[in-house]
């Protein structure tokens, strides 16, 4: 993934997938690159975040709290499922 915070773009050209318990970089599910336009506020926040991110251009953008590769099932259980549940709950 390439981030152009100043230009407000994000290029998704690969993903980190798990194969037989091992994480490997591969093409995206559709095998196509995706150019995403970022909202100005998100581009500004992301630019500042990237400046402080250790590891330079090869650093992973999404990691666990201790900086390790984030696996899909971890993310789903920790972030996605609770968010969906909260959104579905009447207040």
Fold and architecture overview:
With 91 residues, the chain is α+β, with helices and mostly antiparallel strands. Helices cover 33% and strands 23% of the residues. The model has no long low-confidence stretch (mean pLDDT 86).
Short description:
The chain contains 2 helices and 5 strands; from the N terminus they run βββββαα. It is of the alpha+beta class and 91 residues long.
Notable traits:
3-stranded antiparallel sheet; single chain; two-stranded antiparallel ribbon; 91 residues; alpha+beta; 2 helices
What strand order characterises the main sheet? 1-2-5
**Are there runs of 5+ residues with pLDDT below 50, and where?**
none
Written as H for each helix and E for each strand, in order along the chain, the element string is: EEEEEHH
Largest sheet entry: 3 strands, antiparallel
Tell me, what's the shape?
Answer: globular
What structural class do helix, strand and pairing data support?
alpha+beta
The helical percent reads 25-40%
Strand content: 15-25%
End-to-end Cα distance? 38 Å
- Give me the oligomer status: single chain
The chain-level mean pLDDT equals 86
